[in-house]
């Protein structure tokens, strides 16, 4: 179904990506200073996805990408696609699934595995 995944950039600002049903990143948001701003924009986008505009471009290297506009503001930038057909598939995935997508928050710095288990080389 796709998901919005919140994470942190190296400068400690927040961002989110929208991933396809197969887990591939379709677009990446701008940076946010506060996590709640990121969450609010995701919710706003989910409610207004039918009003989104996709400005399509072909880069100098021959790859395709789009800028996702919400109103007159750039909301996000897509990944690079090798063909125009793949770009269209990415846009279709957004239109079909973004309004129903779940939000996953991976912005915490908490470790998933216990340090002792990692140090001992245990495999889960």
Automatic annotation (TrEMBL):
SUPFAM superfamilies found in the cross-reference section: YegP-like (SSF160113)
Domain of life: Bacteria
Protein's recorded name: DUF1508 domain-containing protein
């Amino acid at each position: 179904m796709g998901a919005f995944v919140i994470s942190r950039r190296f400068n400690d600002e927040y961002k989110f990506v929208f991933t396809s049903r197969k887990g591939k990143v379709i677009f990446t948001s701008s940076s946010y200073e506060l996590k709640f701003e990121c969450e609010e924009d995701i919710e706003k986008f989910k409610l207004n996805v039918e009003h989104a505009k996709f400005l399509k471009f072909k880069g100098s290297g021959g790859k395709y990408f789009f800028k996702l506009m919400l109103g007159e503001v750039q909301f996000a930038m897509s990944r690079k696609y090798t063909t125009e057909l793949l770009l269209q598939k990415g846009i279709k995935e957004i239109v079909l699934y973004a309004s129903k997508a779940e939000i996953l928050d991976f912005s915490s710095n908490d470790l998933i595995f216990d340090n002792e288990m990692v140090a001992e080389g245990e495999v889960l």
